[in-house]
Amino acid sequence: MPVTASDQPAPSTTNPARLTRARRAALLKALADPRRFELLERIAKAGCPLGCSQVRAALPISAATLSHHIKELETAGLIDVRREGRFHYLSLRPGVLEALAARLTALEPTTCPTR
Amino acid sequence: MPVTASDQPAPSTTNPARLTRARRAALLKALADPRRFELLERIAKAGCPLGCSQVRAALPISAATLSHHIKELETAGLIDVRREGRFHYLSLRPGVLEALAARLTALEPTTCPTR
DNA sequence: TCATCATTTCGATAGTTGTCGAAATATCGA
DNA sequence: TCGATATTTCGACAACTATCGAAATGATGA
To answer: Residue A93 is inside which H or E element, if any?
Structure first.
């Protein structure tokens, strides 16, 4: 892959609704992996920042792989990772999913009048 | 490819709002490719069924690759392809993007009360 | 300081996929 | 029937990525 959104300085918290082409692609790619989506679902469901290890315990996944996916989600700007001592806490970055969803639904409105 | 949603009989027009795990993943994967997304955008923008060749003319892409992406979008259930003689017409399958968007925003609502 | 635990990085591997040119198939008009 | 045009299939290649075990790093508490 030549130039992804991952190369960007990236997902500034301000202005969460504006989605670059590259950022939109990065988000979709991050979400497209089933394991990552499930991970995100768990984080979302938790509501409060979720401990890394708790996820690890609940999912049949190696630590290395989990770390990898967390980085992907973070790089895409989907989650925030608060690093506190040796524990890391994951939380959904607010507004991002909504922004993406809006972008998707924005594609729909035009319906063919002839049909 | 082991077991993806593509194997399913699948994107029945009825009940567009229910999204299987597999189907959701297939949709996201289909959308994650930049070229495919642009293709979809063009189809959406056209409103009315868009000729395959018109797309081909407007995009720097080989016929083989275009065919491949169209099949991906169709298999994912994002577009309908009406085959009419030697021309094929592409149109957005209604409701699918909305359903996916809904699924995404559904992840958001729970916000941490402590923070 | 040291053992322990959480997380990351490294290296390697297997599987997936986007891309194309060339060949095949299909449809139409002459 | 024949040639032209539209689309698909085939075969191949390069790039990417999910995955893991092992080793490294970092932080804590004894």
So the answer is: none
Residue B41 one-letter amino acid: E
Predicted TM-score (pTM) of the model is: 0.86
Q: In what order do the strands lie in the sheet with A87-92?
A: A50-51, A87-92, A79-84
**Residues found in chain B:** 115
The answer to whether B77 touches B40, Cβ cutoff 8 Å, is no
| Chain C, protein-covered positions (CB within 7 A) | 5-11, 15-23, 26-28
Amino acid at A2: P
Q: Which of A41, A92, A108 sits opposite B98 (nearest CB)?
A: A108
> How far apart, in Å, are the Cα atoms of B35 and each of A41, B44, B70, B72?
27, 14, 11, 12
Tens-level pLDDT at each residue, chain A (115 residues): 333 333 444 444 445 557 999 999 999 999 999 999 999 999 999 988 999 999 999 999 999 999 999 999 999 999 999 999 999 999 999 999 999 999 999 998 655 555 4
In the block, residue with structure tokens 């992804």: A4
